[in-house]
Structure formats: C-alpha cells, structure tokens
Amino acid sequence: MKVVRVDLGERSYPVYIGGDIARLGEVAGQFDLGEKVLIISSSPVASLCGKKVKDALESAAFQVSLARVPDGEKYKTLSQAAKLYEECAEKKLDRNSTILALGGGVIGDLAGFVASTYARGINFTYVPTTLLAQVDASIGGKVGVDLPEGKNLVGSFYQPRFVYMDLRLLTTLPRIQIREGLAEIIKYGIIEDQDLFLHLEQNLEEIQTLSLDSLRYVITRCVQIKAAVVQEDEREKRGKRQVLNFGHTIGHAVESATGYGRYSHGQAVAVGMIGAARIANKMGFFRKALLTRLENLVMRADLPTRVEGVNEGKVWDALHLDKKIREKQLCFVLPRRIGEVFLTDKVPLALVREAIKELGVEK
C-alpha cells in the first residue's frame, strides 16, 4: 500500500493507495474519529460494498450507521443535504463523530459538505470508489452542492482526515465510469507531467484492462500532482490551484447547459480540454501537432471531442457564472505545451465563440 501525504499544516492527511477494504477499520482506528461513524453512500455502491465497509469499521469498535442517497449528480443539492442533516441528528452525531463518504465524486462533494456544516464541522473521511474520485475528487478538500443556476455554487474547503483507496473496487465499475477517470488522468498529463501523458499514449489499453500495477502507477502519480498543487494553493488564492480546472470551464458550461444529464462530468471535461486546447492553438500557444495528440488520446479513451444538440446561448450563460471570472472577464486555463498550462483572462471572446462552435455547439 502506497501512502501520499497532503501537507497542509494542522489539516494535513494521508492518502492510502491500494489498501484492502477489510483493513479500513485498522487504519481508521489510528485516528481520533469519535465513537460514531455515518457512512454516506449512493444506493448502488452501498449495495456493493456498504456492508464490507461497515463490518471493517465495526471490527475497530466504531458505532456505524449507513445513509443511502439516490444515485446521480442531480441529487447533489441543498435539499438532499438537509435530509442528511436530519439523519445526522437522528443518529445523535456530535462534534467528535465522523462522516465517511463511500462513493464517487458526487457522494464525496455532498457528504463532505454535510460534514463541513453539521454541528459547525465534524470529522470527514473518504473511501472513493470510482477512478475519477480516486485520481481527483477525493484530494484537496473541495466540497459542495449544485444550484439550478450552476455547479458547485454552494460549498467550502474542508479537508478529510484521511483518504483510503481499494483499487480492486474499480474492477466492479461499468466501462463508462473508467472513461470518466481517464479524462482527469489525461488532464494531469497536460497540466503538469509530459511523462505521464506519454505513458498514457503508450499504455492506455493496458490501463483500460484495469491492471492493478498500471492503475497504481497512474493513480499515485495523479495524487502526487494534485497534492503538490493543493499544498501550494489550498484555497485557490494564488492561482496555482486553478490549473486543476483545465477543461472544466467549458466542461462545466456544457454540463449546465444540458441539465447535468446528457453529458457526464468526464465527457464534459474531455470536450472542455479540447475546447481550451483549440483556444490556445488559435492564440499561438499550443501547436497543431500537440492538439492532434490530445484529440487522439481522448478518442482512444472513448471520450468525446465534440458535443451534439447543445445550445450556444445556454453555454454562454453558464460560462459567465464560472467561479474563475475576474472583473467580468472569462478566465481560462490554457495549455502552452504538454505538461505546462497557464491562467489567463485575456482571451478574445470571438475566439471563445469560435472554439465552442468547433466543438459542435449550436445556435
């Protein structure tokens, strides 16, 4: 089992990669988590491994209960959070108790938000069960819920006590969930590590077979990259952490414009990365050959490079709700080359419109 430490002073925590769910209680027992643990999970994940997690924690003398929430981004809402607050109160959780998120990014965001706000903040731990959550969502402490007007508009920064990853859980995922994670892994190669990008180009098919050795390498590298970025800029005050949003500006707009239903997060981010790369290319930064390499890798990962039936006006409205806006200027993370990106609010709007049209967005 590999351990990557996220160093944030008193909020530091370890990320355990490649552990066995059966040993979760052993690890949890090393932390001061109180007596009561509430597992928050989606119904499908709870059915798959909820009992294993509960048994592991109970073996370490925790009093454990399980709250199931409906599956899907559309349930990452304030109303769902309110139901979970009631669950916490019914189970008599106090400030020393712990909420454990068991699931993907949606569950992590929702459970973490509840943990950060119930009783003014209780312990939070995370057992991510999807590739997307393991390489990205579980690291860094961003938690929150969506509003009809946009994604993650209500939230906070709230670091977990620890993150625990059993890679064998990934073998239970449908192929679409693996594609979700691959989008974020490709993102890490573009923003920070050309060697990782080259590794993906050379070994993508082996990774897609869910070889544990291949998964362990790419997941560990992604966690290391994200940990380093978060350590430098935990709350997105210095601009460094915003590089993690590569592909997310247009990606979130596509999700919002389609009601968070037609395109999954990973699919939207894939399209968003292509859009950002096209903008960079038009501005003279990202050579055409590099754009082609990115498009080819995205397609090999069975992810889209274009969208269909997406309204330009709705995308434009969603872009202007983006949290990275500076003084009413759209702010983009753009690639300079593979392994290096930069943040800018100097993108001509005409280029943005041109790029999103090339992605298939319609009037």
TrEMBL record:
Name of the protein this chain belongs to: 3-dehydroquinate synthase
The entry's keywords: Amino-acid biosynthesis, Aromatic amino acid biosynthesis, Cobalt, Cytoplasm, Lyase, Metal-binding, NAD, Nucleotide-binding, Zinc
Enzyme class: lyase
Binding locations of Zn(2+): E184, H248, H265
Underlying gene: aroB
Residues the entry annotates as binding NAD(+): 71-76, 105-109, 129-130, 142, 151
Cellular component GO terms, alphabetical: cytoplasm
Domain 3-dehydroquinate synthase N-terminal: 68-179
One Pfam assignment: DHQ_synthase
Function as written in the Swiss-Prot or TrEMBL entry: Catalyzes the conversion of 3-deoxy-D-arabino-heptulosonate 7-phosphate (DAHP) to dehydroquinate (DHQ).
Biological processes per GO annotation: amino acid biosynthetic process; aromatic amino acid family biosynthetic process; chorismate biosynthetic process
This protein's record includes keyword Disulfide bond: no
Family: Belongs to the sugar phosphate cyclases superfamily. Dehydroquinate synthase family.
